[in-house]
Amino acid sequence: MSQSSFKASFRVAFVDTDGAGVVHYSNYFRFFERTEEEFYKHLGFDFTDFRKRGLWLPRVEAFCQYKKPATYGDLLEVELVVEELKEKSAKLSFKVANEAGDLLALGYLVIVVAEKQTGRATQIPKDIVERLRPFAKQVL
Amino acid sequence: MSQSSFKASFRVAFVDTDGAGVVHYSNYFRFFERTEEEFYKHLGFDFTDFRKRGLWLPRVEAFCQYKKPATYGDLLEVELVVEELKEKSAKLSFKVANEAGDLLALGYLVIVVAEKQTGRATQIPKDIVERLRPFAKQVL
Amino acid sequence: MSQSSFKASFRVAFVDTDGAGVVHYSNYFRFFERTEEEFYKHLGFDFTDFRKRGLWLPRVEAFCQYKKPATYGDLLEVELVVEELKEKSAKLSFKVANEAGDLLALGYLVIVVAEKQTGRATQIPKDIVERLRPFAKQVL
Amino acid sequence: MSQSSFKASFRVAFVDTDGAGVVHYSNYFRFFERTEEEFYKHLGFDFTDFRKRGLWLPRVEAFCQYKKPATYGDLLEVELVVEELKEKSAKLSFKVANEAGDLLALGYLVIVVAEKQTGRATQIPKDIVERLRPFAKQVL
Questions:
Q1: What structural domains does chain B harbor?
Q2: What's the complex ipTM?
Q3: Does the predicted model carry a pTM greater than 0.95?
């Protein structure tokens, strides 16, 4: 199955770094989510559209493997792939590289669609599935 | 008028520091708010109690003067004083010191009580005023 | 004296918001600094250039006045003006607006140039002064 | 092999929450690290001791599984176990529960000891190994 990826770029701000002079490891998860947000925006929707339908998108798993540190001023390129598209959840994978093309980090998020009121997992709305499908490596 | 202060302590975490090896200046505002939260908790209420009444507590002004940097592992003592207690707002001042007693920062927050729906400023609920009054330097 | 301003734009990420559904007040100080960083980059230098000369740029004062809340997805436009350029310090002012042109926040930072080793304030390097001058409202 | 765990508690601050009204998923990694910091402090050392020896502790893997959301004001209890103690690295696991005893999150960090200059992994200093060993589930 053919599949496309989505890319977003972020300049490392000073506040993203810690006393070791590198981007704090927790901030990669923030770059992941900012990429996810830009990806949805590119597809024509956002978190607010889920809220309006009484839904939200809790993360159920988050993982990151760190290869090389990023520092202040680096331009990070984050590549997102929809690894798995399931009935009620999706697994998004992320690759973070710097301008020199060095791979800095690899990771993923497993995100479920849930009803805000009950907390129960529910089906991804059809119109959203349609927009995600062209980016999905696997539709399960 | 006699007046008491409230104190809270926070250990500086590594993530609070930046690439200059000191606590990032924006994080003092987070320590201010965490002190405010502990102060309210000490008085028997919290932000959630405001939300239940359809109210919230937007900050309208925030100021901090930095005297000396704080570093990883420092135990910060933050002292809060209710500088002014008005009908619809309060001014809280903060002093941040380290364990050695060095003054690190001074600042204040001006907080207004507002209706969440309309955004309009409204009176501080009476029971809250009663609990804040003993800590107020000035009641206007 | 004629004087120019510098503008930078930032999309509000979900992590920038808090439980009140608006951008946390401390994050405006992060947007201020990110604007400062882009301004310096535009002028051809960055924080790292100061570090290489044994200098750093501690903030000595930070202030923000909040007019209207920003929410998730807003595109913030931050306008920076060099209010005062002194021998050893500068005062930068910031205006934050949303896409609709609503003024959301106003603030400033007073920044000093200091020797990293001794902590003492020192003169702003001449080449930096030259690059800041065209943007300065007042040179003192 | 007998093995002990270490526990630390953290009050959820308002700034820890996001627009969904729950603790932002990236902040669990900050609670993990703050627990790690308190654990080291309990054992009599900290990140600064590593820096003084020319070492640092980059994270090479970070994982978290989210079971139930935490909200503003919750008192989080984080339990740390040294899952694996190797020559140059350690795997720390974390369990996060609230006051009611609900399991909120499970995760781990893989941390390596590296030379700050070269970036190369190196042996965990012997005195540190001795202090970690009583908490280690597996010594490899």
A1: 6-139 (3.10.129.10)
A2: 0.96
A3: yes
